[in-house]
Amino acid sequence: MHKDKKDLLQGTLDLLVMRVLRSGPRHGYDIAKHIHLVSENVIHVGQGSLYPSLHRMERRGYIKAKWDITETGRKAKFYELTKDGVIKVSEEEKNWEEFTSAVGLILKNA
Questions:
Q1: 30 exposed, middle or buried (CB, 10 Å; 0-12, 13-18, 19+)?
Q2: Contact 87/61 with Cβ under 8 angstroms?
Q3: ∠ CA(93), CA(99), CA(101), 5° rounding?
Q4: How confident is the model over 11-26, as pLDDT tens digits?
Q5: 3-109 in CATH: which number?
Q6: What is the DSSP string of the chain?
Q7: Rounded-to-integer distance, Cα 104 and Cα 74, Å
Q8: Which sequence spans correspond to the domains of the chain?
Q9: What is the mean pLDDT of each run of 10 residues along the chain (110 residues)?
């Protein structure tokens, strides 16, 4: 991935992760894999970005974590949205839509 795309990802990673968690609890590797697949292999979220994002959102009360067993029988931390997280992801989606719409206008009309 081009460096500029990585910079953009760091600014939107929390939104992407919360959006994935809206469908239910997932462990870190599964979150990263889902983002990669849904983005048609464009966005790769490395552990060095994902786990700080998860910990930051947990400290802010947007997600909570608990240990459980993965589909392959391994112990892993599963993350899920809290009530505050559900509200936050909706707000952030709205902000993202407004921002991308404004960028689109500039690209069309500048």
A1: middle
A2: no
A3: 100
A4: 699 999 999 999 999 9
A5: 1.10.10.10
A6: --HHHHHHHHHHHHHHHHHHHTTS-EEHHHHHHHHHHHTTT-----HHHHHHHHHHHHHTTSEEEEEEE-TTS-EEEEEEE-HHHHHHHHHHHHHHHHHHHHHHHHHHH-
A7: 44
A8: 3-109
A9: 51 92 97 96 92 95 96 95 97 93 94
Phi, psi for residue 76 in degrees, rounded to 5: -150, 160
Q: Cα–Cα distance between 53 and 107 in angstroms, integer?
A: 30
Q: Specify burial of residue 109 (Cβ count, 10 A radius: 0-12, 13-18, 19+).
A: exposed
Q: Please give the Cα distance from 108 to 101 (Å, whole number).
A: 11
Residue appearing with tokens 């029988």:
73
